[in-house]
Amino acid sequence: MLFMEDIKLVVFDFNKTLVKENTWYELNMAMGVTHEEDQKYLELFETGKITYQEWWQHIKKIYDERGNATKENIEKIVRNYTYVEGAKEIIEYLKEKGYTLALITGSMDVLAKDVAEELGIELYAGYNQLIFDHDHKLARVVTHGTDHDFKADMLWKFCNQLDIRVDQAVCVGDGDNDTVLFEISKHGVTFTGSRVEDRAWKVIDKLEDLKGFL
What we know:
The protein has 214 residues and is α/β, with parallel strands linked by helices. It contains eight helices and seven strands; from the N terminus they run βαααααβαββαβαββ. It has helices at residues 23-30, 35-46, 52-66, 71-78, 87-96, 109-119, 147-162, 179-185, and strands at 9-12, 100-108, 123-132, 138-142, 169-172, 188-191, 202-204. It has a seven-stranded mixed sheet with strand order 4-3-2-1-5-6-7, sandwiched between helices. A hairpin with a 5-residue loop joins strand 3 and strand 4. Helix 2 (35-46) packs antiparallel against helix 3 (52-66) and helix 7 runs parallel beside helix 8 (179-185). The protein is globular. The two termini are 17 Å apart.
């Protein structure tokens, strides 16, 4: 039997978990993608009708036609995030309790690095790597496998690095790609009203509620 004192690692998602924004959506809107286009291509991807790279090709075409996809402009947009209420406080609380913290996001690697460094999160990984050309224009997005596979691989990697069992991790998130972490760890935590509420081990109203069991 696993006791709560056996928990060693707490893993956080990024969008809608630690920050209020959905960074891809915000970037798309700034680059000229309409809400209708964003939802159309997202639904095609989520229903398996197009691959992630095909989704990106559609989005990139709009960026090229309507946006100003320079490195400076993109990084300014995606770094304009707002932490959810209690995010900084719960990170400090968990660090003081002795947990190792990790950030595994389906968003961009630059954001994972920034937020991890800002909050003092030891381990981090971002699914999307933005590649710019010699003119500092966005050329492509590099990914490895699906975002589900990426999150699962990173959880296993971090647990192996820490020499702990995967069921010694608690994983906090709200998206479909977080459910693979829920399944692997058996300790998925999401928020009331989340689309993955029925697949979580625990459901909380706000991040501060983690103090009730961690």
